[in-house]
Amino acid sequence: MIAPAAAALRDRLRWKLVAATATPMDSAGSVDPAVLDRYLRGLIVDGADALAVLAHTGRGPYLDEATRDLVTRCAVDTGVAVIVGVGGRPGERTAEVAAQAARAAALGAAGVLVFPVDPEPVAHHDAIWRAAGLPMLAFDLYVRPYAAPQLAALLEHPGVAGVKVARLHDAIACQAGLAAAHRADRLAVTGEDRMFGPSLMWGAQAALVGLAAAAVPVTAAVLAAFADQKYADFVAASARLDRLAEVTFTEPMEGYVRRMLRIAADEGRIPTSHAVDPYGPALPDDDRERVLSVARQR
Protein backbone atom coordinates (compact mmCIF):
# COMPACT_ATOMS: atom_id res chain seq x y z
CA MET A 1 0.00 0.00 0.00
CA ILE A 2 1.41 3.37 -1.00
CA ALA A 3 1.30 6.19 1.55
CA PRO A 4 -0.85 9.21 0.62
CA ALA A 5 2.17 11.55 0.49
CA ALA A 6 4.02 9.19 -1.86
CA ALA A 7 0.95 8.76 -4.05
CA ALA A 8 0.59 12.54 -4.25
CA LEU A 9 4.20 12.99 -5.42
CA ARG A 10 3.82 10.12 -7.88
CA ASP A 11 0.81 11.80 -9.43
CA ARG A 12 2.34 15.28 -9.30
CA LEU A 13 5.40 14.23 -11.29
CA ARG A 14 3.68 12.08 -13.91
CA TRP A 15 4.68 13.30 -17.40
CA LYS A 16 6.87 15.99 -15.86
CA LEU A 17 10.48 16.85 -16.63
CA VAL A 18 12.60 17.04 -13.49
CA ALA A 19 15.92 18.72 -14.26
CA ALA A 20 18.82 17.01 -12.49
CA THR A 21 20.61 20.28 -11.86
CA ALA A 22 24.30 20.90 -11.70
CA THR A 23 25.75 23.02 -8.90
CA PRO A 24 27.58 25.98 -10.44
CA MET A 25 30.68 26.83 -8.44
CA ASP A 26 33.90 28.74 -8.93
CA SER A 27 37.43 27.37 -8.95
CA ALA A 28 37.52 27.50 -5.15
CA GLY A 29 34.39 25.38 -4.92
CA SER A 30 32.21 28.25 -3.71
CA VAL A 31 28.57 28.64 -4.73
CA ASP A 32 27.27 32.15 -5.43
CA PRO A 33 23.58 32.34 -4.39
CA ALA A 34 22.77 34.85 -7.14
CA VAL A 35 24.37 32.69 -9.83
CA LEU A 36 22.59 29.61 -8.53
CA ASP A 37 19.21 31.35 -8.34
CA ARG A 38 19.45 32.64 -11.91
CA TYR A 39 20.53 29.24 -13.15
CA LEU A 40 17.71 27.33 -11.46
CA ARG A 41 15.00 29.77 -12.49
CA GLY A 42 16.24 29.72 -16.08
CA LEU A 43 15.82 25.95 -16.24
CA ILE A 44 12.19 26.34 -15.18
CA VAL A 45 11.52 29.12 -17.68
CA ASP A 46 12.91 26.90 -20.44
CA GLY A 47 10.71 23.90 -19.65
CA ALA A 48 11.73 22.08 -16.46
CA ASP A 49 8.64 21.28 -14.39
CA ALA A 50 10.57 20.41 -11.22
CA LEU A 51 14.13 20.39 -9.93
CA ALA A 52 16.33 17.63 -8.55
CA VAL A 53 19.23 19.12 -6.62
CA LEU A 54 22.25 17.55 -4.92
CA ALA A 55 21.94 14.36 -6.93
CA HIS A 56 24.73 12.87 -9.03
CA THR A 57 24.76 15.76 -11.50
CA GLY A 58 24.72 18.27 -8.64
CA ARG A 59 27.63 16.54 -6.88
CA GLY A 60 25.52 16.29 -3.73
CA PRO A 61 27.61 13.53 -2.12
CA TYR A 62 30.66 15.82 -2.08
CA LEU A 63 29.11 19.00 -0.68
CA ASP A 64 29.12 20.11 2.94
CA GLU A 65 25.96 20.73 4.93
CA ALA A 66 26.01 24.51 4.58
CA THR A 67 26.29 24.29 0.80
CA ARG A 68 23.59 21.64 0.65
CA ASP A 69 21.29 23.90 2.66
CA LEU A 70 22.00 26.83 0.36
CA VAL A 71 21.23 24.82 -2.77
CA THR A 72 18.05 23.34 -1.31
CA ARG A 73 16.73 26.70 -0.09
CA CYS A 74 17.43 28.34 -3.43
CA ALA A 75 15.62 25.57 -5.30
CA VAL A 76 12.62 25.59 -2.97
CA ASP A 77 12.34 29.35 -3.37
CA THR A 78 11.60 28.89 -7.08
CA GLY A 79 8.19 27.47 -6.16
CA VAL A 80 8.38 24.21 -8.11
CA ALA A 81 8.59 20.73 -6.63
CA VAL A 82 12.13 20.01 -5.43
CA ILE A 83 13.64 16.55 -5.08
CA VAL A 84 16.81 16.45 -2.97
CA GLY A 85 19.46 13.79 -3.47
CA VAL A 86 20.50 12.10 -0.23
CA GLY A 87 23.36 9.72 0.38
CA GLY A 88 25.94 8.56 -2.11
CA ARG A 89 29.04 8.95 0.06
CA PRO A 90 31.44 6.02 0.50
CA GLY A 91 31.09 4.45 3.92
CA GLU A 92 28.02 6.47 4.84
CA ARG A 93 25.73 5.37 7.64
CA THR A 94 21.97 5.19 7.30
CA ALA A 95 21.54 7.62 10.20
CA GLU A 96 23.58 10.23 8.32
CA VAL A 97 21.47 9.87 5.18
CA ALA A 98 18.27 10.00 7.22
CA ALA A 99 19.49 13.25 8.78
CA GLN A 100 20.06 14.70 5.29
CA ALA A 101 16.50 13.77 4.36
CA ALA A 102 15.11 15.30 7.55
CA ARG A 103 17.00 18.49 6.77
CA ALA A 104 15.56 18.52 3.24
CA ALA A 105 12.06 18.15 4.70
CA ALA A 106 12.64 21.05 7.09
CA LEU A 107 13.72 23.23 4.17
CA GLY A 108 10.60 22.49 2.14
CA ALA A 109 11.61 19.74 -0.29
CA ALA A 110 8.83 17.74 -1.94
CA GLY A 111 10.77 14.47 -1.86
CA VAL A 112 14.16 12.81 -1.83
CA LEU A 113 16.10 10.77 -4.35
CA VAL A 114 17.86 8.06 -2.36
CA PHE A 115 21.23 6.92 -3.70
CA PRO A 116 21.45 3.12 -3.94
CA VAL A 117 22.87 1.08 -1.07
CA ASP A 118 23.70 -2.55 -0.50
CA PRO A 119 22.95 -4.48 1.63
CA GLU A 120 19.51 -3.92 3.17
CA PRO A 121 18.14 -1.19 0.91
CA VAL A 122 14.61 -1.58 2.26
CA ALA A 123 15.74 -0.98 5.85
CA HIS A 124 17.77 2.01 4.64
CA HIS A 125 14.77 3.57 2.90
CA ASP A 126 12.52 2.79 5.84
CA ALA A 127 14.83 4.67 8.22
CA ILE A 128 14.82 7.67 5.87
CA TRP A 129 11.03 7.57 5.64
CA ARG A 130 10.66 7.45 9.41
CA ALA A 131 13.12 10.28 9.95
CA ALA A 132 11.87 12.69 7.29
CA GLY A 133 8.38 11.63 6.24
CA LEU A 134 9.24 12.69 2.70
CA PRO A 135 8.23 10.62 -0.33
CA MET A 136 11.18 8.83 -1.84
CA LEU A 137 12.35 7.99 -5.33
CA ALA A 138 14.49 4.87 -5.38
CA PHE A 139 17.54 5.10 -7.64
CA ASP A 140 18.55 2.16 -9.83
CA LEU A 141 21.95 3.48 -10.88
CA TYR A 142 24.23 1.72 -13.34
CA VAL A 143 27.30 1.87 -11.09
CA ARG A 144 25.37 0.24 -8.21
CA PRO A 145 22.30 -1.46 -9.67
CA TYR A 146 19.68 -3.27 -7.65
CA ALA A 147 18.95 -6.93 -8.22
CA ALA A 148 15.38 -7.49 -9.39
CA PRO A 149 14.15 -8.85 -6.02
CA GLN A 150 15.67 -5.87 -4.18
CA LEU A 151 14.01 -3.37 -6.50
CA ALA A 152 10.66 -5.15 -6.24
CA ALA A 153 10.87 -5.04 -2.43
CA LEU A 154 11.76 -1.34 -2.48
CA LEU A 155 8.79 -0.56 -4.68
CA GLU A 156 6.49 -2.12 -2.10
CA HIS A 157 7.60 0.32 0.59
CA PRO A 158 4.75 2.77 1.36
CA GLY A 159 7.03 5.79 1.22
CA VAL A 160 8.46 5.05 -2.22
CA ALA A 161 6.69 7.09 -4.89
CA GLY A 162 8.67 5.70 -7.81
CA VAL A 163 12.04 4.70 -9.15
CA LYS A 164 14.53 6.54 -11.30
CA VAL A 165 16.03 4.00 -13.69
CA ALA A 166 19.50 4.99 -14.89
CA ARG A 167 21.18 1.91 -16.35
CA LEU A 168 23.08 3.91 -19.03
CA HIS A 169 23.36 1.26 -21.75
CA ASP A 170 21.62 -1.82 -20.32
CA ALA A 171 18.34 -1.77 -22.22
CA ILE A 172 17.07 -5.04 -20.75
CA ALA A 173 17.64 -3.86 -17.17
CA CYS A 174 15.99 -0.53 -17.96
CA GLN A 175 12.92 -2.27 -19.33
CA ALA A 176 12.74 -4.55 -16.29
CA GLY A 177 13.00 -1.63 -13.86
CA LEU A 178 10.28 0.35 -15.57
CA ALA A 179 8.02 -2.70 -15.68
CA ALA A 180 8.61 -3.29 -11.96
CA ALA A 181 7.44 0.24 -11.21
CA HIS A 182 4.23 -0.30 -13.15
CA ARG A 183 3.53 -3.58 -11.38
CA ALA A 184 3.86 -1.83 -8.02
CA ASP A 185 1.75 1.18 -9.12
CA ARG A 186 4.72 3.49 -8.63
CA LEU A 187 6.04 6.17 -10.96
CA ALA A 188 8.42 4.88 -13.64
CA VAL A 189 11.01 7.65 -14.04
CA THR A 190 13.60 7.60 -16.77
CA GLY A 191 17.10 8.68 -15.92
CA GLU A 192 18.34 7.33 -19.24
CA ASP A 193 20.19 10.12 -20.97
CA ARG A 194 21.49 7.74 -23.66
CA MET A 195 18.20 5.82 -24.03
CA PHE A 196 15.75 8.64 -23.37
CA GLY A 197 13.30 8.18 -26.24
CA PRO A 198 13.31 4.37 -26.04
CA SER A 199 12.77 4.45 -22.28
CA LEU A 200 9.54 6.39 -22.82
CA MET A 201 8.38 3.74 -25.26
CA TRP A 202 9.31 1.10 -22.66
CA GLY A 203 7.01 2.65 -20.06
CA ALA A 204 8.65 5.65 -18.40
CA GLN A 205 6.09 8.30 -17.47
CA ALA A 206 8.40 11.02 -16.15
CA ALA A 207 12.02 12.06 -16.54
CA LEU A 208 14.77 13.04 -14.13
CA VAL A 209 17.90 13.54 -16.21
CA GLY A 210 21.21 15.32 -16.20
CA LEU A 211 20.67 16.29 -19.84
CA ALA A 212 18.21 18.88 -18.53
CA ALA A 213 20.96 20.59 -16.49
CA ALA A 214 21.25 22.79 -19.61
CA ALA A 215 19.68 22.87 -23.08
CA VAL A 216 16.35 22.13 -21.38
CA PRO A 217 14.08 22.63 -24.42
CA VAL A 218 15.81 19.77 -26.25
CA THR A 219 14.82 17.29 -23.54
CA ALA A 220 11.44 18.84 -22.79
CA ALA A 221 10.39 18.56 -26.43
CA VAL A 222 10.88 14.79 -26.45
CA LEU A 223 8.83 14.17 -23.31
CA ALA A 224 6.07 16.54 -24.37
CA ALA A 225 5.76 15.04 -27.85
CA PHE A 226 5.51 11.52 -26.48
CA ALA A 227 3.01 12.47 -23.78
CA ASP A 228 0.86 14.28 -26.37
CA GLN A 229 1.12 11.31 -28.77
CA LYS A 230 2.66 13.50 -31.47
CA TYR A 231 4.88 10.73 -32.69
CA ALA A 232 6.38 12.40 -35.74
CA ASP A 233 7.50 15.27 -33.51
CA PHE A 234 8.77 12.70 -31.00
CA VAL A 235 11.01 11.01 -33.55
CA ALA A 236 12.51 14.31 -34.70
CA ALA A 237 12.99 15.59 -31.15
CA SER A 238 14.55 12.29 -30.08
CA ALA A 239 17.09 12.52 -32.89
CA ARG A 240 18.14 15.99 -31.71
CA LEU A 241 18.41 14.81 -28.11
CA ASP A 242 20.42 11.74 -29.05
CA ARG A 243 22.97 13.88 -30.88
CA LEU A 244 23.46 15.93 -27.72
CA ALA A 245 23.59 12.89 -25.44
CA GLU A 246 26.18 11.24 -27.69
CA VAL A 247 28.72 14.00 -27.06
CA THR A 248 27.90 14.72 -23.40
CA PHE A 249 27.35 11.25 -21.92
CA THR A 250 30.48 9.62 -23.26
CA GLU A 251 33.87 8.57 -21.93
CA PRO A 252 35.11 9.71 -19.56
CA MET A 253 31.52 9.34 -18.37
CA GLU A 254 31.97 11.39 -15.21
CA GLY A 255 32.95 14.28 -17.45
CA TYR A 256 29.30 14.80 -18.36
CA VAL A 257 28.86 17.17 -15.41
CA ARG A 258 31.50 19.58 -16.66
CA ARG A 259 30.15 19.25 -20.18
CA MET A 260 26.65 20.25 -19.06
CA LEU A 261 28.08 23.17 -17.09
CA ARG A 262 29.95 24.32 -20.19
CA ILE A 263 26.73 24.19 -22.18
CA ALA A 264 24.98 26.18 -19.45
CA ALA A 265 27.72 28.81 -19.61
CA ASP A 266 27.57 28.94 -23.42
CA GLU A 267 23.82 29.51 -23.16
CA GLY A 268 24.40 32.39 -20.74
CA ARG A 269 22.84 30.61 -17.77
CA ILE A 270 25.98 30.88 -15.64
CA PRO A 271 29.31 32.72 -15.90
CA THR A 272 32.13 30.76 -17.46
CA SER A 273 33.96 31.13 -14.16
CA HIS A 274 31.29 28.93 -12.53
CA ALA A 275 31.35 26.13 -15.10
CA VAL A 276 33.67 24.17 -12.81
CA ASP A 277 33.44 20.58 -11.64
CA PRO A 278 36.24 19.94 -9.13
CA TYR A 279 35.09 16.34 -8.68
CA GLY A 280 35.21 15.17 -12.28
CA PRO A 281 38.00 13.89 -14.52
CA ALA A 282 40.19 15.91 -16.83
CA LEU A 283 38.78 16.23 -20.34
CA PRO A 284 40.58 16.32 -23.69
CA ASP A 285 41.58 19.74 -25.03
CA ASP A 286 39.08 19.54 -27.87
CA ASP A 287 36.20 18.35 -25.70
CA ARG A 288 34.63 21.75 -25.07
CA GLU A 289 34.33 22.80 -28.71
CA ARG A 290 33.23 19.31 -29.76
CA VAL A 291 30.33 19.44 -27.28
CA LEU A 292 29.35 23.04 -27.89
CA SER A 293 29.31 22.62 -31.66
CA VAL A 294 26.53 20.05 -31.21
CA ALA A 295 24.75 21.88 -28.39
CA ARG A 296 24.45 25.01 -30.52
CA GLN A 297 22.49 23.12 -33.16
CA ARG A 298 18.74 23.40 -32.68
List the helices and strands and how they pair.
Elements: H1 4-13, E1 17-20, H2 33-45, E2 50-53, H3 65-76, E3 81-86, H4 94-106, E4 111-114, H5 121-132, E5 136-141, H6 148-154, E6 160-166, H7 171-183, E7 187-190, H8 196-201, E8 206-209, H9 216-227, H10 231-248, H11 256-266, H12 287-295
Could you please describe the fold and organization of this structure?
This protein has an eight-stranded parallel barrel, surrounded by six helices. The protein has a single domain, classed as Alpha-Beta Barrel (TIM Barrel). The chain is of the alpha/beta class and 298 residues long. It has helices at residues 4-13, 33-45, 65-76, 94-106, 121-132, 148-154, 171-183, 196-201, 216-227, 231-248, 256-266, 287-295, and strands spanning 17-20, 50-53, 81-86, 111-114, 136-141, 160-166, 187-190, 206-209. 52% of the residues are buried. The chain contains twelve helices and eight strands. The chain is globular, with a radius of gyration of 18 Å. The termini are far apart.
Overall body shape: globular
Give the biggest beta sheet: 8 strands, parallel, barrel
- Mean model confidence by pLDDT: 97
Q: Which fold name fills CATH's third level, the topology?
A: TIM Barrel
Please give the number of β-strands.
Answer: 8
Which secondary-structure class do the elements indicate? Answer: alpha/beta
Distance between the termini: 44 Å
Question: Which consecutive residue ranges, at least 5 long each, have pLDDT under 50?
Answer: none
Give the CATH class: Alpha Beta
Task: Tell me the number of helical segments per DSSP (H or I, 4 or more residues long).
Answer: 12
Number of domains: 1
